[in-house]
Amino acid sequence: MVSPARDRLEFVVDEDGRVVVLPASVDASELAGMLKRPAKPVTVEGMNQAIRKRSGRR
Asked: pLDDT tens, 23-49?
């Protein structure tokens, strides 16, 4: 829970000229549980391989 004194808003003007109000920050506790654990653990070599693949190097 965030207290009103700490709430921060970001005002963004989109391409259509509309103003969109977004939270400027998220409390880290709100992020807990958003990512699920992989069904199969990933090795460091597997992570490095994925990074090389995404960067175009093999």
From this structure: 888 777 877 888 888 788 889 999 999
Domain boundaries, position 23: 4-55
CA dihedral over 2, 8, 14, 16, signed as positive or negative: positive
Backbone angles phi, psi at 23, to 5 degrees: -70, 135
**pTM, rounded to two decimals:** 0.34
Which distant-in-sequence residues (6+ apart) come within 8 Å of 23 by Cβ? 7, 8, 9, 10
Domain count, the chain: 1
